[in-house]
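At your convenience, could you comment on the folded chain following this short note?
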Amino acid sequence: MNPLISVIIPLFNKEPHILRSINSVLKQTFQKFEIVIIDDGSTDNGPEMVKKINDSRIKLIQQINSGVSVARNRGIQNINTDFITFLDADDEWTPNHLQILFNLQKTYPGAGAYVTSYSRCNSKGIIRKMNNKYIEKYPWEGIIPDYFRAATEEDPPVCSSSVGIPKYVFSEIGMFLEGEPMGEDLDMWGRIAIKYSIAFSWRGESKVYVDAVNRSGLTKVLNPNLPFINSGKKAIERGEVHETMINEVSEYISYLQLGIAYHFLLRDDSDSAAKILKECKTNTYKIQKNLLFLFSRLPIISFKIFRGINKLILWCWNKECN
């Protein structure tokens, strides 16, 4: 059976979860796929567990630890189809995920990325289903009208375990940026959205496990310049962003800057937060910018008190609503 879809799974020390991820692919209603697993120098028994699976559609490639972008790029270079999907080694798919992506590609052939909804889960089940007020409610599917505005929501429209991308797109915009400590995936989705539309479906969701072992996140060293902050600015300067999108891309860059400044404040680094905020140029988020800058100049305890009160208000609001 010739595969029509490639599934790339970067693997690094995910022994407790890798079989769950692979089995969720093997149980898909759409069966014309290949699985390319890139072992990024795991030191646990994950790769040996993969080798024991008797399925000719699975290919295991091993390399020294080089980072998730290098692993994904190597996977892209070793596929046999024109449509690439990604699945993190600690996440899983619902059984119709690949079928929905395949259908989306046929229905919207000019898009640069095809995505499904996702749920954040823990070992006990679903914590929260994706919610995004800039995308029409279930069961809508179609082209996201404004990706960059939708990406400023708490649940952005694209995550690494919910997306499928035609192979030619990487030839147009380049591969995942290597050597970046964080934000390489946001950079990829942003670079795609500058040149192409993004197709979305609420069906065929993926499940993202927030309590998985070795889960990456803000435990990493914070980069004051997330990759897309630079990529987006350069694209605007080079005239690669259509004039109708310049404001949306610029405000998305500001949104990313505010997020980094916020997390610097969480880490008691007021000076780094203030530096980022001075560089942030925004009309949409002026209030947030000014408030964060104020806290960067006050004793850090004032920010922590404010954050605690804000969390209490949100908790009371949710209790009232429920």
